[in-house]
Design a protein that fits this description.
The chain is α/β, with parallel strands linked by helices and about 325 residues long. The protein folds into 3 domains: about 50 residues, 434 Repressor (Amino-terminal Domain) (Orthogonal Bundle), CATH 1.10.260; about 130 residues, Response regulator (Rossmann fold); about 130 residues, Rossmann fold (3-Layer(aba) Sandwich). Helices cover about 40% and strands about 15% of the residues. The protein is built from 11 helices and 12 strands. The strands form 2 sheets. The protein has a 6-stranded parallel sheet with strand order 2-1-3-4-5-11, with helices on both faces. A 6-stranded mixed sheet has the order 7-6-8-9-10-12, with helices on both faces. The radius of gyration is 25 Å and the shape is elongated. The termini are far apart. The relative contact order is 0.12. This is LacI family DNA-binding transcriptional regulator. Keywords: DNA-binding, Transcription, Transcription regulation.
Amino acid sequence: MDVARAAGVSQKTVSRVINGDPHVSAEVRDRVHRAIATLGYRPNRAARNLVLGRSRTIGVLSVGSTDYGPSALMVAAEHAIRSARYSMSVVNTLEGEPESITTSLRELVDQGVDGIVVNEPVGAFTLEPGAIGDLPVLSLSGRYGISANEVVADADQASGGRQAAEHLLGLGHRTVHHVSGPAGWRSSELRTDGWRSTLEAAGAPQPPVLTGDWSARSGYEAGMHLAADPTVTAVFAGNDQMAIGLLRALLEAGRDVPGDVSVVGFDDVPEAAYLARSLTTIRQDLPHLATFGVGMLVDAIENPRRQDRRENVPVELVVRETTAAPPNGH
């Protein structure tokens, strides 16, 4: 009432200005904002949200992993959500369990969130028809088709696999071995697809894929196996942690990197540039990916008629010290 009196307008007009009604004249809007500033008025957020029919809360469904990729996406998404003046409700799921994902999505819907960020790596999960409806959903790992208003922001994972393989073949290696991430992860499968399609296109032999679990230990174990084969001269690891374990195994086996074996990782973790031999890797800009994605989600919440948005963020090869031409005779 005080703001309305100071601005010389009705309380209804003040409410329209606070709620962003575009049909209020610029002159009246300026008077109301000056009155608000003079009186130090702070709008009641709960009341405003009730009028707008929104909770100003975004739900986040996350695998709860401490691995670099998922955790970096979570940190960046949280910052972007709070910068957009939304609250956040996080539900962590159990890795690789689609039933847990479905239950967690229902939990977020029941909370009345305005939108959901899905930071899940699994390849597939199902929901009953209408379980989400047109609630805006942002997927950070490929389209799931779980909402009529789904937006997607993901890195070009397959391109990363192609760039890694092309780089190593371009150096003269006869073929490229691959240590993949775990089965069922979209990012792992797409990186492997990019690697495989490049070898096929080049007519290069396709060695059996060794499967890790993203950890340095699994990379080390795969590396011990590869180090015992003198024909191995190039390896693409599905992430930098596995590449680091692989480098340790090659060192212990007396295989020089890159003199005997070249290694490429994926992610460009902060440590990659500071190893004893700085790691050649595929860089994906996870903070940009999450920030851009949340921006699209907020737009989908506030402009629900605009649908079917997707941003495929490019990745890039960063050449450092772990790749070189193969040794003579290979």
